[in-house]
Design goal:
The complex is a heterodimer.
Chain A lengths: L2 H34 L3 H36 L9 H31 L5 H7 L3 H20 L6 H26 L1
Chain B lengths: L12 H23 L15 H6 L3 H5 L1 H4 L5
The chains are: A mainly alpha, B mainly alpha.
């Protein structure tokens, strides 16, 4: 990947990933309200807000972040499977996205019930929340963030094989150079 | 004889710890699914009050206006 394009992709990936974290941070207080509040108006507003944030912020940002992350890793020397921190980050991001998509169904269901003016306060209080998933998702995203910033050392067997192969190729080129010059 | 540069480094400790944490989480999730009522209980339906309860319970607006509940004009 050309340096200019790489920087643009990196900037986009950082913006989308931080946006994902921010959207989850905005979602969490609504989820806490859904779990703890007894006030029907607050509950109704919380469920509707959770649905909007999940559908129009968290889910698109999650997919965009996943996509740009894969593009960057493939377009830089880090590779997708060469260093342990990259595939581990990828796996955690995929896991978070899969759980998020599954959870979106629950959130949409809550919002549908909350949007119905016939739904009583007791029914709203019994709905519950998605707090376990949203807090878990936040922990996963923060862990991926730490891995991406610190880039802990450790090469996978595949990465090690590729590195040795590249070293051998470079050594062979160096050995060929004097012969080429002589010819 | 292979030199140091040809010897593959051991798997780092942090990777082993991540693997262990992932295994523990997997066991916990499976335990919740098996002992917590199965996959059918893990989804939107687990949050939904039973239909019978919803039908038995009139809307708050009706409870607040007994005349409406009785079918009388207020």
């Amino acid at each position: 990947m050309a340096p200019g394009l790489r920087k643009f992709a990196l900037a986009a990936h950082v913006a989308l990933s931080v946006g994902w974290l921010g959207a989850v941070a905005a979602y969490l207080p609504l989820d806490v309200t859904a779990a703890a509040s007894q006030d029907p108006d607050r509950l109704r507003a919380a469920y509707l807000g959770m649905d909007l944030i999940a559908r129009y912020a968290i889910v698109p940002l999650a997919f965009a972040s996943l996509l740009t992350g894969i593009l960057i890793s493939l377009g830089t020397p880090w590779g997708l499977f060469r260093h342990y921190w990259v595939p581990i980050s990828l796996l955690m991001t995929i896991l978070a996205t899969v759980v998020l998509v599954a959870e979106t169904e629950t959130i949409r269901h809550f919002a549908g019930i909350a949007a119905d003016p016939e739904t009583s306060g007791d029914a709203l209080r019994r709905l519950g929340s998605t707090l376990v998933h949203s807090v878990g998702g936040m922990v996963v995203l923060l862990t991926v963030l730490v891995l991406n910033v610190y880039k802990p050392q450790g090469m996978t067997p595949y990465g090690w094989r590729k590195l040795r192969q590249e070293r051998r190729e470079r050594a062979a080129e160096r050995e060929r150079e004097p012969v080429d010059e002589a010819v | 004889m292979a030199s140091d540069r040809d010897t593959r480094p051991a798997t780092p400790l942090w990777v082993k710890l991540f693997g262990l944490a992932a295994l523990v989480l997997l066991v916990l999730v499976v335990a919740v699914l098996v002992f917590g009522g199965g996959p059918g209980q893990h989804g939107p339906r687990r949050h939904v009050p039973s239909t019978a309860n919803l039908e038995a319970e009139p809307p708050a607006a009706v409870l607040a206006a007994p005349d409406l509940a009785a079918g009388r004009p207020s």
